[in-house]
Amino acid sequence: MTSRLAFITGASSGIGQALAQCFFGAGWQLALVARREAELRAWAVGQGWPAERWRVYGADVAQTDSIVAAGHACLAAQGVPDVVIANAGISVGIDTAERGDIDVMAQTFAINNVGMAATFHPFIGPMRSRGSGTLVGIASVASIRGLPGHGAYCASKAGVVSYCESLRGELRDAGVKVVTIVPGYVDTPLTRGNRYGMPFLMSAEAFAKRAVQAIEAGTSYRVIPWQMGVAAKLLRVLPNALFDRLLAGRPRKARKT
Q: What is the CATH number of the domain that holds 43?
């Protein structure tokens, strides 16, 4: 057993929930964050976990003060985490010609980007003082190239990669690591509504196991699964004309409305 503590946002379902199970199985203490606090608490109780091993904090990652308050509550109740995972995110298709979808884009950035920075914010000072800690950003292979109908999501996840890279350089001399995890297609409620093929689809549990290994190793950037990393790199080097032709007619991500 270990007294190490993992702080995980978006822990009520999908990747966040699978990460929580994986860390708990490895003996970690948990600080679990979600907007649906009661649902998350009921799920954790249902796991039969000893109450002293976990706490739940309700927060809306889209609201900066809300997620910052959850971070401070964790510091007060459980101490400085060893790992902070900014996992909460949304994926919604948009059409820039539709006025309402501009608001959807703003909400996507508020959660996927500003929410990530706000998640990390309370812990950077304490981790610097301690001289250790790991901040983890969950990006996506959708960050590699822009996909039709996915403008908000692709842009936000490209922003996650660049932001984490910047933060890694800022914290390098402080002993604080920044890890960027780049999932391919993972079977979660977020992806089950996709209307297109999802190559190398993996379960949330299999993804979480590999992600935890990368986090514990302090890997700066990891695409999971590796096959998707190869495919993404090939897409990156395709000439634009060929890339555009390849994606012509591809079903788009469903819009919010």
A: 3.40.50.720
Does 107 reside within a domain? Answer: yes
How far apart CA 230 and CA 191 sit, in angstroms, is 21
- Give the pLDDT band of residue 218 (cuts 50, 70, 90): very high
Pick the closest to residue 171 from 211, 129, 212 (CA basis): 129
**Would you tell me how many other CB atoms lie within 10 Å of the CB of residue 86?**
27
Residues known to be catalytic: 153
What is the torsion angle, in degrees rounded to the nearest 10, for the CA atoms of residue 123, residue 120, residue 45 and residue 211?
Answer: -110
Q: What is the dihedral of CA 30, 44, 56, 11, to 10 degrees?
A: 80
For 117-164, the pLDDT digits (tens) are 999 999 999 999 999 999 999 999 989 887 888 899 999 999 999 999
Q: How far is CA 173 from CA 23, 125, 128, 163, 177, in A?
A: 27, 13, 9, 17, 10
User: Looking at the 3D structure of the chain, how many domains does it have?
Assistant: 1
Burial of 191 (0-12, 13-18, 19+ CB in 10 A): middle
Threshold 0.85, pTM exceeds = yes
Full residue range of the structural domain in which residue 50 is found? 5-247
- What average pLDDT score do residues 32-44 get? 94
Q: Say if 253 falls within a structural domain.
A: no
Cα 95 to the chain's mean position, in Å?
24
Q: What is the pLDDT of residue 240?
A: 85
